[in-house]
Amino acid sequence: MADAALTCAACHGPLCAPILTLPCGNSLHRACVLAPPACAPPPLNRLLICPFAGCAWRAHPHPLTIAHAGADTVLGDALAAGSDVEVADALECALCLHLMQDPVTLFPCGHSACRGCLVATFTAPPPTLCGGGGEVAGPACFLCRAPVLVPGGNSCTAGAYYARVPANRALTALIARVQPATAPPPADESDGDANVPIFACTLVLPGMPCRLHVYEPRYRLMIRRVCSQRANRDFGMCAPRSDGTVAVGDVGTLVQVQAVQWLADGRALVETVGAAPFRIVEKRCVDGYCVARIERVRDDPDECVKLDDAVPADVSPCSGPCSTVRDAICGASRMLERFLGRLAGAQRAQFVEQFGAMPCDPRAFTWWLAGVLPVDAARRARLLTDASPKSRFATVLEWCRPR
């Protein structure tokens, strides 16, 4: 029995070129696709009713007339190939030059690529139109530069749209045939702690927001790769040495990308938040920036700070011979309120935007207070190496005491 993914839904015959692949990931003979009647009123004259049962769209945007829709040439070449080797060659991704993984086909031009590679092209800074005075072009195909289907035609949402659009079912079926089922999935070396991109910029503490203006080409490339290749969209932040570099043994913090705004000239405004401290074990240079193998500084699993734990009076910011962790947090909160009360409204808003709201969880409170207090980077770096939550809490409270 023929694979349903390799069968035309309209004529029920085996697929052969020319083929049209729809945004739902299903393919059919181009000749079997009927254009809407010329007399159909809008918006029906711009829709293509999907002939595939179970299609989530049911109707697709119609590219003016069917003559403007590009054929799926990759699928056509793969179906016409005579051997598995030729099929594999036809299924090579034009971006990474490997056998496609999770293939996605652009509509209406019909060109295909790995989902990860395709999303990376839309994550890159958008091109500008020549002579357009900085006007930003809409999303375009990586190969032919033809406009591609994106809801609203917005370049900013193209990456998110193609990250979730259904894969090309026919190409997926062919890839499964030529790729042995016993073969393990290709390892993504950009993920994990063995290949962490390092941004030598400043020291960030866990939980602390950090906004970056990325303008150097090497770091713009790094941000694009982080957003498209690393599952957690994270990278390392370290304070640079006097020569602007980092070294083995240096400490830093993994930060996660929350949002990226690409500007027309290629610069990026990146919002991140600190996640976990680490030490650099090995490092190397990739395309001008540092990539390191890191060792995370993990908290002692047998030790935690609870709100009802007692705090010695000599490290407590509260009055009284002894207090609990809850009392210490409340005392710090009152100190913060007095400090903010002396600031103008705009300055208070800027403080909250920079540091975030004060958390009540003892572990998060420790890092937050360490970021707020005016202490030097060396003391903060030593705090990152401390795996004892109780020791960190006591250290930060000690910083609060008047000298």
UniProtKB/TrEMBL annotation:
One Gene Ontology molecular-function label: zinc ion binding
PROSITE patterns associated with the record: ZF_RING_2 (PS50089)
Keywords: Metal-binding, Zinc, Zinc-finger
RING-type domain ranges (all copies): 93-145
Signal peptide: none
Keyword Transmembrane among record annotations: no
PANTHER family named among the record's database cross-references: LON PEPTIDASE N-TERMINAL DOMAIN AND RING FINGER PROTEIN C14F5.10C (PTHR23327:SF42), RING FINGER PROTEIN 127 (PTHR23327)
Protein name per its UniProtKB record: RING-type domain-containing protein
Species assigned in the record: Allomyces macrogynus (strain ATCC 38327) (Allomyces javanicus var. macrogynus)
Source organism phylogeny: Eukaryota, Fungi, Fungi incertae sedis, Blastocladiomycota, Blastocladiomycetes
